[in-house]
Write a structure and sequence with these properties.
- About 50% of the residues lie in helices and about 5% in strands.
- It contains 21 helices and five strands.
- Helix 14 packs across helix 15 and helix 18 runs parallel beside helix 21.
- The longest helix is centred in the middle third of the chain and has 26 residues.
- It is elongated.
Length: about 450
């Protein structure tokens, strides 16, 4: 693997309904839609990059996981949160290096806000401007506090308004619904909605303040770099220690990162997708996988390179003499010339703690193939994309195609063939194959048969 070229630090803000496009200040930030699970991994972030999380999705999509944020913090990426889901994540991860900004963050940090639904709103799709269709609980509570402090709401009216807002699900809490359910408190509710329309809600205020603050800090840091003089504490606090990644990491986090990490900078092809392309379609991939398993197993038990598979298996706790007729040691057409120990090692190898086989694209898998070449191969074999959804190919069809492609007939041989190509099982092989064009895969099987 070649070293990645240097590039200037990137500044990314994930924002949606909290701050309409017309309200977003111009500056050094690149605006992306509300963050979801995997988005940080997909950005290929590097030390010195800066991320501001304002909005994020949940309920219908997997939300941003804490482990994902911790992983990029451990890389040396600056991550801040404000206003909405970003404020909640910042409150939860304040002790691990994530920076929180604004009133919503403060409320979450002191325990006044405890749920994603406190900041959640129903909103239109990004293509329709992502506009808000409902009012967040936190916006109601903050506006009540402001109006009560200003003497425009009585304590009783404020309590009634909060009770009405809390009784509605965040997807139903529209302005019309708030008025409809207000009952005798309707005049007070009208004052609250007028206040929000005139001054904006607390989430919008927090988002704007955070963006302006970070832009000012960025300008000060740039001036400091140019002059060589220190501007003092930037407000980010102590950076996360990269060694903490070993504690924060998990096999699931490693798998998520591998699936979303681009095969090379700026690519739309993920590293896991690229590996699957090799695993599925390279005739000699079992040989590549055996070389990888030998190296990784030797490293894990502290044995020198080039040691035999028998010694590796013994160090891993297997019986020193593997029976050639053991089910996991039986040969397939691709491994008939291997020793029984080699077959057992390749088919059972897992990375610690024992779930993943691969967490990156190792040199053995590439076998000299350039990343640009692999990327183009993956793109040519990818499933067709278009405005009309293509009916998914059922798994049974993929299993049949892969059996033909790999030249195996019996179910047990098919399972062994999947294992010796580095898949956890044949179900994983079929799942990953679904990202490719079945017509082109069928053509490959015909050529393999010929």
């Amino acid at each position: 693997m070649t070293a990645r070229p240097a590039r200037p630090p990137r500044r990314i803000a994930f924002v949606g309904p909290t701050l309409a496009a017309a309200e977003r200040p111009e500056g050094s930030f690149t605006y992306l839609p509300p963050v979801r699970h995997g988005d940080l991994f997909a950005l290929d972030l590097r030390p010195g990059d800066q991320v501001l999380v304002i909005d994020g999705v949940y309920q219908h999509f997997a939300p941003i996981r804490h482990k994902e944020i911790l992983a990029v913090l451990a890389l040396g990426v600056r991550v801040a949160g404000t206003a909405s889901l970003g404020a909640l994540r910042a409150a939860e991860l304040a002790g691990f290096g994530m920076r929180g900004l604004g009133h919503v963050y403060t409320a979450a940090r002191c325990g006044e806000l405890v749920a994603d639904a406190d900041v959640g709103v129903l909103h239109a799709a990004d293509g329709d401007g992502g506009r808000r269709l409902t009012v967040a609980t936190v916006a109601v509570r903050h506006a009540v506090a402001e109006l009560t402090a200003a003497g425009r709401l009585s304590t009783a009216e404020g309590a009634q308004i909060r009770q009405v807002a809390d009784s509605l699900h965040f997807t139903e809490r529209s302005e019309q619904a708030l008025l409809h359910h207000a009952g005798p408190a309707r005049p007070a509710m009208m004052r609250l909605l007028d206040h929000l329309a005139a001054h904006g809600d607390v989430k919008t205020q927090d988002a704007l303040s955070a963006l302006r603050l970070l832009e000012a800090e960025f300008a000060a840091e740039s001036a400091e770099d140019a002059s060589g003089e220190s501007a003092g504490d930037s407000g980010w606090g102590v950076a996360a220690d990269a060694s903490a990644a070993a504690v924060w990491g998990s096999s699931y986090g490693a798998e998520w990162a591998f699936e979303r990490r681009p095969v090379r900078s700026g690519s739309v092809v993920g590293s896991r997708h690229a590996l699957a392309c090799l695993q599925l379609f390279e005739p000699d991939f079992p040989e590549r996988h055996r070389a990888y398993a030998r190296r990784m197993a030797a490293d894990s038990v502290g044995l020198p390179g080039g040691v035999g598979s028998g010694a590796l298996l013994g160090a891993a706790g297997f019986a020193p003499a593997t029976r050639p007729d053991a089910r996991l040691a039986r040969p397939t057409a691709a491994t008939v010339h291997w020793s029984a120990e080699d077959r057992l090692l390749a088919r059972t190898f897992r990375l610690r703690p024992g779930r993943l086989v691969y967490a990156d694209l190792p040199p053995e898998a590439l076998a000299g193939t350039g990343l640009a070449e692999l990327e183009q191969w993956c793109l040519r074999l990818a499933a067709p994309a278009g405005p009309s959804p293509v009916p998914p190919v059922p798994p049974v069809r993929w299993h049949a195609l892969l059996r033909r492609l790999w030249g195996v007939q019996r179910p047990h041989e098919y399972r062994l063939a999947a294992l010796e190509r580095g898949f956890r099982d044949e179900a994983e092989a079929a799942r990953l194959a679904a990202a490719f064009n079945p017509a082109l895969v069928a053509l490959l099987t015909e050529r393999a048969a010929a």
